[in-house]
Structure formats: structure tokens, C-alpha cells
Amino acid sequence: MSINNIIVLNEKVLIEPCSEMRTTNAGLYLPPESKTEQKETIDCGRVIKVGNGYPVFNNSEGNIWENASKGIIQFVPLQVKVKDLVFYLASQAVEFLYETKKYVIVPECCILLIDRNSQVKDEISKLIGE
């Protein structure tokens, strides 16, 4: 089995967390976890997969449940994209192991920061061995 066979639902995001403290050549500090003033733990990681978004039902086209069973549902896409570096609330993440690798699933609303700097993403890929 491969991680490619996993389907992420709705507004959820599959993340491979950063495993240890790192800094990039660009000077960005990548902590495995840090604390905010409210004592909330923040982690960082790389987005592996994203769900199809927030479902939106159009009431003008008849019964909502009838349309859902026919597959007539529209989705508002997520802001986060695959390979983005994200910082998220660790308390809202669900951790699991898949083929001996640690992943977390987080609702998009718990992602605090997205970094799309390609240089940083390339450095992270090198650090995690891709």
C-alpha cells in the first residue's frame, strides 16, 4: 500500500510533521513544536494531501439529500496546497502511523501559517530525504 491510496475528506489536510529542530539556509527556524503566549503547542510539517474542500449545497436545485446521493455537490477549495510548509495547532491534530511513518490529519481551520517559499520547500525535501 502507498500513501497515494489514501483519500483525505472535506476540509482535512494530511501532514508529514517536521521531526526535529532545524533551520534552513534561508534562516527560517523550523521547530518541532513551540509555545504561544496561550500555552498552545504549535507544530510544523509538510502537506502531503488535501481534501476536496468545504461542501456547498445549492438549495435551489431540489432536495439536498437527493442531490448528495447523486453526487451533485460543489466544494469550496482549500487554501493550503500539496508541498506547502504549514504551522498548525498540535492539540487539534490526529496522529497516526502509516507504513512506519508518522503523519497527522488537521482541519484547515487549525493551520495558522502557510509558507509557499520554494527555496524553503526544496530544503525541507532535502532534509527529509526526498
Question: What's the structural blueprint in terms of helices and strands?
Answer:
Blueprint: E1 12-17, E2 22-23, E3 29-30, E4 34-35, E5 41-50, E6 54-56, H1 64-69, E7 74-76, E8 85-89, E9 94-98, E10 101-107, E11 111-115, H2 118-127
Antiparallel strand pairs: 1-5, 1-10, 2-3, 4-5, 5-8, 6-7, 8-11, 9-10
Give a structural overview.
The protein has helices at 64-69, 118-127, and strands spanning 12-17, 22-23, 29-30, 34-35, 41-50, 54-56, 74-76, 85-89, 94-98, 101-107, 111-115. It has 130 residues and is mainly beta. The protein has one domain: GroES chaperonin (10 Kd Chaperonin, Protein Cpn10, Chain O), CATH 2.30.33.40. The mean pLDDT is 78.
Count of DSSP H/I helices: 2
The CATH superfamily turns out to be GroES chaperonin
CATH class: Mainly Beta
Q: Report low-confidence residues grouped into runs of 5 or more.
A: none
Total strand segments = 11
User: Using only CA atoms, what is the Rg?
Assistant: 17 Å
**Tally of discrete structural domains:** 1
What proportion of the residues form beta strands (DSSP E)? 35-45%
Averaged pLDDT, please? 78
Structural class: mainly beta
Shape: elongated
The largest pleated sheet is described as: 7 strands, antiparallel
